MHS family MFS transporter
Amino acid sequence: MSTSTAVTTAPVNPRGRVILASLIGTSIEFYDFYVYATAAVLVFPTLFFPAQSPATALLSSFAVFGAAFVGRPLGSILFGHFGDRIGRKGTLIASLLTMGIATFLIGVLPSASTPGWTVLAPTLLVIFRFAQGIGLGGEWSGAALLATENAPAGKRAIYGTFPQLGAPIGFIVANVLFLVLNLAMSPEAFAAWGWRIPFLASALLVIVGLYVRFRLVEAPAFTKVVESGAVAKLPLGRVFRTSWRQLILGTFIMLATYVLFYLMTTFTLAFGTTATSVGVAADAAKAAGKPFNPATFVPGLGYTRNEFLIMLIIGVVFFGIFTLVSGPLAERFGRRRMLSTVTVGIIVFGLLFVPLSGGGIVGVLAWLIIGFSLMGLTFGPMGAQLPELFATNVRYTGSGISYNFSSILGAAVAPYIALALWGLAGGSTILVGIYLSIAAVLTFIALRLSKETRDSDFTTIVE
C-alpha cells in the first residue's frame, strides 16, 4: 500500500546551494576516484608490483582498481541505511570524509620497493582502495537525492544532472593535474614522489566540500518521512521486500553506462599508450631498465602518456557538455524513451570500435569524443532515473544499491575483461567493442521492461 503526502513547492535549501553542494561533493569524490584510476595505469604497476612483468603488473594494478567496486555496494548499503534512517545531510558528510581520508592515505603509502613494505604496501593499497569504494558507494545516491528531492516540479532530471556533472569535472581536474606534473618534472621524479601530489591535494578539496555541506539543512522529502513516522527500521530489508524488481531493473539500466565509461577511460589509456610493435616496446623497456617479455606483448596505439591524456581530457569535455544537454532532453521526451535511443547509439558505437580507433589522431579523437558524448547522454538522466524508481523512505538505499551493484557487473570487470579481449584479438579492439554492445543490449532490455518515471509521484513516502 502506498502513502503519499504533498511536499512543499519551495525547497528549504536555496537552489544555488543545492546545486553547488551536489556538484562539489561528487566532483571531489570522482576526483579522488580518478586519481587512482590514472595512477593505476601510469605508476602503480611499477611501484607496487615491481617483481612482475609489465603486462602482469598492469593486470594486478587493475585488479586492485576493481577492489573499490566491491566496496561500493557495501557503501551503498551502509550509508543508505543511515541516509534513510537519520537523513541525507549527515550521511553525505560521512561519505565525503571516508573517501577523502582513504585517498590521502594512499598518497603517503610507501612503495613495495621500500624495505619491509614488499607485502604490506600492496595490501594496504587494496584496503585503502576498498575504502574509496565504500565512500563513493554512499556518495552518489545521497548527492542525487539532494538534487532531485529539492528540485522544482518538472525539473528533476535537470537538477539530477548536476551531481552527474561531478564525474567529468573530477576526471578533468585529476588528469590535468597529472598532466601538469608530468610536464613539470622528470619521469624519475614523478615516479619517486610527484604522483603523490594529487592524492595529498584531496585533503584541501574535502575541506571545501565539508564547508558547503555543513551549511545544508535536511531535504524536505525526508523531513516528511520523519513527520509521518514512516522511517524504515531496516531500509535494506524493506527495499528488497517491496522493490526487488526496481533493484534488478535499475542495476541493468546502469550497466551500459558503466562499461562504456571505464572502457573509454581506464582501458583506452592503457591501449593508447602501449607501443605499436614488439621492437619499440623492447627498446622502451631497455631504456627504462625494466624487464620485457615479448610473449606477453600486445600492440597498442603508441601515443605518449601526455599525448593521450590530452586527448582523453578533450573527450571528457564533451562528456560534461552532453551531461548537461541530457537533462532537458529527459524532461521533454521522458527518461525511458531518451535512454533507449542513446543505448541503441552505444550498441552501434561498440560495433564501430575498430575503424574509428584505427584512423590516426583524428580517428582516435573522434572515437573518444563520440564515446564520451554518448556517455554524457546516458549518465546525465541517471541522477533522476534511479531515485524515481523508489519511495522516499528507501530511496537512498534503493538507488544506491542499483547504482553500485551495477558497478560490479560493469565497471569493476570492464578494464580487466577489455585487456583480456584485446590480447585475445592480438591488439585489435573488435572484441572489446562487441563486449560493450552486449552490455548495451542488456541495458536496452531493462529499459523496455521498466516504466516511464518522468511523471511519477516523487512524494510517495512508503511502498
